[in-house]
Amino acid sequence: MSDPIVSVVIPAYNGAALIGETLASLETQTLTQWEALVVDDCSSDDTRALVRHWRDPRVRLIENAVNGGPVRTRNRGFAEARGRYLAGLDQDDLCRPERLARQVAYLEANPDVALVGAQAEQWVEGRILPMNYAPHTTPDLIAWLSWIENPLVWSTVMVRAEVARRLDPFTRPDILYAEDFDLYHRIRPFGRIARLDEPLLIYRQHAGGVSKRFTDTMRDSATRVLAEAHRPHLGAEAEAVAQLLVRHNMGGLPVADGVTFRRLGRVIAGLQAAFIAEVAPRDESLALIRWETARRWRQLARAALRSGRVTLGDVLSARPPHLGLGYAGLDDLLRWRAIGAVRQLRRIRRESDSSTVENESPKG
Prior knowledge:
Blueprint: E1 6-12, H1 19-27, E2 34-40, H2 47-52, E3 59-63, H3 70-80, E4 85-88, E5 94-95, H4 99-109, E6 113-124, E7 127-130, H5 139-145, E8 158-160, H6 161-164, H7 179-186, E9 192-205, H8 210-213, H9 215-234, H10 238-250, H11 258-279, H12 283-307, H13 312-318, H14 330-359
Parallel strand pairs: 1-2, 1-4, 2-3, 6-9
Antiparallel strand pairs: 4-8, 5-9, 6-7, 6-8
Helix pairs in contact: 5-12, 7-9, 9-10, 11-12, 11-13, 12-14
């Protein structure tokens, strides 16, 4: 049998309920020269039996002798893959029929690109909805976004096998649940990162997903990735800056006070200036970088104002000059601030009521 063009690596753990649909989505691919390596990490359900007896011989089961965790399990699959291109896929996500063909065509047409992702949609309670990623991208935009967040869905990623084998390890086990984000930074010396803007994957959102169950570990790992990436630019301040970006830009947590909000504005403006000076993006990319940064600034302002802990003056004084109001109108800001004022009043009343109860003396 000739080697496949693409090896799809699927780490599996107790995935019997959904992995069949994932494998079925591969069988619809218009590019047919693929193999799927399902690496089972000692499942206690029927995952191994299901994969072992799968009807398609292109699906191969690899069994871990002991539970090694998702990163080591994925790395084992990549080490045993035979394809020219290696594709990531989680056990519960679904590929659109053109996914593999479109990504292979892109990599063959762009030899300077080491890794390519794709836009994704999400499956939420039976509905397919858009995700909050940039609708239009260039490699320079993806590079900029990786300075402040994770710009790609892992299950959309395809990488050149020759590049993957130059990384040791392929993904780092000590960066658990942000190992993909770490990979995008470590792979840069070997080529650019791009993304196809067509949705080629359906990402399942459900309570059992890793992103729902291990949020704290994911945030700690992402903070480490960004701190390492920004230390050459920021020195000792890199850790604190990374924490701000992970908590508020990536994690969506409202900024708690005006001082922090103003600092976050300076951080984003400073990093963007450093990126533009280093990369010198062309006009199309520069416009997208400005636009997407402004969109994130709008989200930060909305969350902060609606929390009731940040004032409109804080938001206006903190914004980077070129972002204006972050593509939010003054009516938007006033509405968010009004919601925040109501929430602040309720918070004050709750604290007052709690204080009153605590200060009441028991009757004798």
